[in-house]
Design a protein that fits this description.
CATH class of chain D: Mainly Alpha
Number of helices of chain D: 16
Number of strands of chain C: 2
Chains: A alpha/beta (151), B alpha+beta (158), C mainly alpha (358), D alpha+beta (378)
Strand content of chain D: 5-15%
Low-confidence stretches of chain C: none
Radius of gyration of chain C: 21 Å
CATH architecture of chain D: Orthogonal Bundle
Helix content of chain C: 55-70%
Radius of gyration of chain D: 21 Å
Number of domains of chain D: 1
Helix content of chain D: 40-55%
Distance between the termini of chain C: 32 Å
CATH topology of chain D: Cytochrome-c3 Hydrogenase, chain B
Structural class of chain C: mainly alpha
Distance between the termini of chain D: 28 Å
Shape of chain D: globular
Number of helices of chain C: 15
Oligomer: heterotetramer
Chain lengths: 151, 158, 358, 378
């Protein structure tokens, strides 16, 4: 599938999706509410993007962006980057942990590092930090009282 | 055949175990295969790789001169603030002010030996030495001043 | 010639001449206890060092080499350290059983020393049911281990102790059957008679293949019974940190450690007695000259040599093989060792009845 | 602070049906490093495994946000410290991609050789540690003997044994040691002789086989769904070698086979790694005599600034697919950097494949997943 075909295919399912081809791979920017539906489309035939190899979040100061890197084990040359912009004050997005099992751990990491709430996540707890840790360390406005780097 | 399988099972199992025992038995009887180095005893003959990164040193020549201009390139290159350079102004014989280092402070306890300061240095004033025996009883001894007292910059280095 | 036999005889004669028989017996008992404790201490030191040296040679390194020449005082230094360490008792442990357990294990090891013939006519107690005594007492050590595991109130200890229980109960069987083959051939349970029966050749050579099989089974079974690798499930350190002695420290730990090595020595000594002729020198058929030379080597040297050879084999096992899983351990016993040893016993019985051995 | 009663309550932590909760780690002989597994047992059978991470979390991603593109490479050596060269390569490749730096051929060849040596060293250590988990101590020392030769080569050329920081954006920090080629050849010779020892001691051993065969079976679908990569996924029959899919450095110029086993159990994970070492030797043999002469570092600016945009670089470490994702705002430091570490995804599969097996099997399963804890926590 070429990028044009993928764009046409995605647009037919989700007209409001926008595309960005400046990077190495095709970026699809979608509203967070339609994440699950588009994920199901990507996972099913004919795309079969069954390998979620990276799941992370980027703090863009004005908003948070969830970034999903997807590829198909059938054809590893097709890579898709799925992006969803979230509100910084109350970031909420659907979980993908039932579609890709690897998302369960990655979402827990994003939850504690960025404070993104994943609805319907089976076990949304802190994974790396201690339970009583306050704040979201990877957000840009996080200030560590003991900063080892800026000595 | 059940019994035949049973006997071959036992036989194969025992022979695989004996093979392993033969290997360990070989090493037990061959003492010359021992490879451990007797570290504190072989200090005299110990040879480290000439590129081994042990600590940052500043070489001085016989006139107690170094080549550090105090440009702070190494301080900027250091990822974790190991190096701190304090500069002063020397008065040259012509009466001009010239920038020179007062103290090249190197904190070994923070150094990750990444070699970035060495590559950043424009005048090859610092280098890595192969010394690896760094343990001291007092942590403050790990903060070192690399330029020797009374040392000055070599002629012709800008 | 000065031999252990003559020393004991002169001592006894002297005691009986000086004191009345009761006091003489009491003094003999005291000497025996003293000797046994000394033997324990020396064996512990020697065997631990030996194990570390064997392991080092197999693993292409030198092993302990700092304390004393070649590191011979290393274990003495370790013992000193363990004595000086604080013996902690966990708050929630069953304190009485917790403190009792190492002594139970130690006591069992000591009791087993009684019927062993160390040299010609040098035996503490030549009981007429010697072999039966050994197999019954040796199964008691599991009580100490279970006690330690239960009383520690620690999950690792509990799991380790339960594993140890299952293991020793199963492997008792094939060890027993292996011992039984020799009893069948000799027709006696007494240690001195078993040794005497090997006057003209060791059972391992006299008894054809069935005795060789029994010997192999015996070595495997006692390796398991003493909780040695590859059967060290009770203290599998990658699974249960230290198994049943996780909570023990200081001298109480040292007692467990010592008992493990004493147990190895004892099972190997019994193996040497039953299969390799105990203190009997190596005699080959009608080579009179050869046999005569062999007789010049003292019987205690023969006994110790054979025992340490078996100990070395068990150490060799330990540093070569991975550990078995708990269900595989029981499979090995019930599916392989037990049927083979039962069949083997039958074979030996036939041989013994028909007199087909040398 | 805990008080006395809390501890007592905690130690008698029995579940509703008499389940036993056992802590494996953070200080436990089998969890290399500080992995903490809370294992729920029923007798000897595992009912649930819950990993607790973060004991060695240093927030490398946050640290990198304040380091320049030259500086941040050294930090990545501390992630997966057993394949530090490969981590460094990933970062250097990413900076090169972001700035369109031309890398000289010589640097590419040397990088590839060093990466493969690192992979062998990592697998050697893994074989030893894995055998140790299963109770065999001796293979550890034999494996370390060969690994020692590699670390000596690294020491000669890079100046360090574990965290080399030899690879810089644009090529190498300095040229290879004059004796580099002869030493690598000597290593290949010794390795080929000694690799049969592992066959005798470990692979063929009946106890080892029965401990690992059919233990921790991972199906291909699950491997993909859980995001497994590297030898773990390849043992389940998933083709996922980045060196084949998206070749970097000199990998497109060498011939090698991607090792794929189909069983998916611990034994096939073991086999994949052993065979991979032989493939690495094959790659090195093809390259070692053909290192081209020339520059070892390309022309770079003094201050590195990535173009505005997003960059992603995948490399194949000894543990699987390492992805570095950088969001650049055009400054000297990255805006956001994410390391997609292979161990993190491989760990998440542990509960799934070890459930229902014995506690001894957990060691075999965990050992063959080849977890490096700083890689997981970052």
């Amino acid at each position: 599938m070429t990028n044009e075909e993928i764009k046409a295919y995605i647009s037919s399912h989700l007209p409001e999706a926008s595309f960005d081809e400046t990077g190495e791979w095709l970026n699809i920017i979608i509203p967070p509410t339609s994440l699950r539906s588009i994920a199901t489309v990507l996972l099913g035939q004919p795309m079969q993007m069954n390998f979620l190899f990276c799941l992370t979040c980027v703090d863009n100061k004005t908003h948070l962006t969830m970034v999903y890197h997807l590829t198909s084990m059938k054809n590893r040359s097709i890579n898709i980057v799925l992006k969803a912009n979230l509100d910084r004050q109350n970031p909420v997005i659907d979980t993908l942990s039932d579609l890709w099992r690897t998302a369960e751990f990655h979402e827990r990491e994003v939850f504690e590092m960025f404070g993104v709430n994943f609805t319907h996540h089976p076990d949304l707890r802190k994974l790396i930090l201690e339970d009583d840790f306050k704040g979201f360390p990877l957000r840009k406005d996080f200030e560590d009282p003991i900063n080892m780097i800026k000595l | 055949m059940f019994l035949k399988d049973y006997i071959t099972d036992v036989f194969n199992g025992v022979s695989s175990l004996l093979k392993g025992m033969r290997k360990t038995g070989y090493y037990f009887t061959h003492g010359k295969e021992i490879i451990t180095e007797q570290y504190p005893d072989n200090r005299a003959t110990l040879k480290l790789a000439d590129r081994f990164k042990g600590e940052v040193v500043m070489p001085h020549d016989e006139n107690n001169e170094h080549t550090c201009t105090g440009c702070t390139a190494c301080e900027l290159a250091c990822p974790n603030g190991t190096i701190k350079i304090i500069t002063k102004f020397d008065i040259t014989p012509e009466g001009k002010k010239k920038k020179a280092i007062d103290a090249f402070i190197y904190r070994l306890e923070m150094c990750t030996l990444c070699n970035l300061c060495i590559t950043a240095c424009p005048s090859d004033a610092i280098k890595m030495s192969a010394n690896f025996e760094h343990s001291v009883f007092d942590r403050s001894k790990l903060t070192k001043v690399l330029n020797k007292p009374g040392s000055k910059i070599k002629e012709g280095i800008e | 010639m000065l031999s252990l036999e003559s020393i004991t005889k002169t001592t006894q004669d002297w005691l009986l001449a000086k004191f009345n028989p009761t006091i003489a017996l009491a003094m003999e008992c005291a000497i025996v206890i003293l000797l046994a404790i000394t033997l324990f201490a020396i064996l512990g030191l020697v065997l631990v060092l030996l194990e570390r040296k064997v392991a080092a040679r197999i693993q292409i390194r030198l092993g302990p080499n700092r304390v004393g020449p070649g590191g011979i005082f290393q274990t003495a230094a370790d013992t000193l350290k363990l004595i000086m360490k604080e013996g902690l008792t966990p708050d929630t442990a069953d304190k009485f059983l917790f403190n009792l357990a190492p002594f139970v294990v130690m006591m069992v090891a000591m009791l087993l020393l009684a019927p062993i013939a160390f040299a010609k006519n040098f035996q503490i107690w030549d009981i007429n049911i010697g072999v039966l005594y050994i197999s019954s007492i040796s199964s008691l050590s599991v009580i100490g281990i279970l006690m330690a595991g239960w009383a520690s109130n620690n999950k690792y200890s509990l799991l380790g102790a339960m594993r140890s229980g299952a293991q020793i109960v199963s492997y008792e069987l094939s060890a027993g059957f292996a011992v039984l083959t020799i009893v069948v051939l000799t027709g006696s349970l007494q240690i001195s008679e078993i040794v005497a029966a090997q006057q003209n050749g060791w059972w391992l050579f006299k008894g054809h293949i069935p005795v060789v099989i029994a010997f192999v089974l015996y070595i495997i079974a006692v390796t398991a019974e003493t909780n040695r690798a590859p059967f060290d499930l009770a203290e599998a350190e990658s699974e249960l940190t230290a198994g049943f002695h996780t909570e023990y420290s200081g001298m109480k730990f040292a007692l467990f450690f010592l008992a493990e090595y004493i147990n190895i020595f004892i099972v190997c000594a019994i193996g040497a007695t039953l299969f390799l002729g105990g203190w009997m020198p190596l005699h080959i058929g009608h080579w009179e000259g050869f046999n005569h030379i062999m007789d010049y080597i003292p019987s205690s040297v023969w006994f110790m040599g054979k025992t340490f050879f078996l100990i070395f084999i068990i150490m060799w096992f330990r540093w070569t093989f991975p550990r078995l899983r708990v269900d595989q351990l029981l499979n090995l016993e019930w599916k392989y060792l037990l049927p083979i040893s039962l069949f083997n016993l039958l074979l030996v019985t036939v041989i013994a009845i028909m007199g087909w051995y040398f | 602070m805990y008080n006395q009663t809390d501890i007592i309550k905690d130690t008698t932590n029995l579940g509703p049906e008499g389940e036993l909760v056992v802590n494996m780690g953070p200080q436990h002989p089998a969890t290399h490093g500080v992995l903490h597994l809370v294992v729920t047992l029923n007798g000897e059978t595992i009912k649930k495994i819950e990993p607790h991470l973060g004991y060695i979390h240093r927030s490398i991603e946050k640290m990198c946000e304040s380091l320049t593109y030259r500086q941040f490479i050294y930090v990545t050596s501390r992630m997966d410290y057993l394949s530090s060269h490969i981590n460094n390569t990933a970062c250097a490749l990413l900076v090169e991609k972001g700035m369109q730096i031309e890398v000289p051929e010589r640097a590419k060849f040397v990088r590839t050789i060093l990466n493969e040596l690192t992979r062998i060293a990592s697998h050697e250590l893994w074989i030893g540690a894995m055998a140790m988990d299963l109770g065999a101590f001796t293979p550890f020392f034999y494996a370390f003997r060969e690994r020692e030769m590699i670390t000596d080569i690294m020491e000669d050329t890079c100046g360090a044994r574990l965290t080399m920081n030899y690879i810089v954006p644009g090529g190498l920090m300095y040229d290879i040691h004059p004796e580099f080629q002869t030493k690598v050849k000597a290593f290949i010779k010794q390795f080929k002789e000694k690799v049969t020892e592992y066959e005798d001691l470990v692979t063929g051993n009946i106890i080892f086989q029965s401990r690992t065969k059919g233990v921790g079976v991972l199906s291909a679908e699950d491997a993909i769904s859980y995001g497994c990569s590297g030898p773990v996924a390849r043992a389940s029959g998933v083709s996922c070698d980045i060196r084949k899919i998206a070749p970097y450095d000199a990998y497109d110029r060498v011939e090698f086979d991607e090792i794929i086993e189909t069983e998916g159990d611990s034994f096939s994970r073991y086999l994949v790694r052993v065979k991979e070492m032989n493939q690495s030797i094959r790659i090195i043999e093809q390259l070692i005599d053909n290192i081209p002469e020339g520059e070892f570092v390309g022309k770079t600016k003094n201050v590195l600034k990535l173009n505005k945009g997003e960059f992603y670089q995948r490399v194949e470490t000894a543990r699987g697919e390492l992805g570095v994702y950088i969001v650049s705002e055009g400054a000297t430091t990255p805006h956001r950097i994410k390391f997609r570490s292979p161990g993190f995804s491989n760990l998440s599969v542990l509960d799934h494949i070890a459930k229902g097996s014995k506690i001894g099997d957990l060691m075999a399963t965990m050992g063959t997943l080849d977890l490096v804890i700083p890689d997981i926590d970052r």
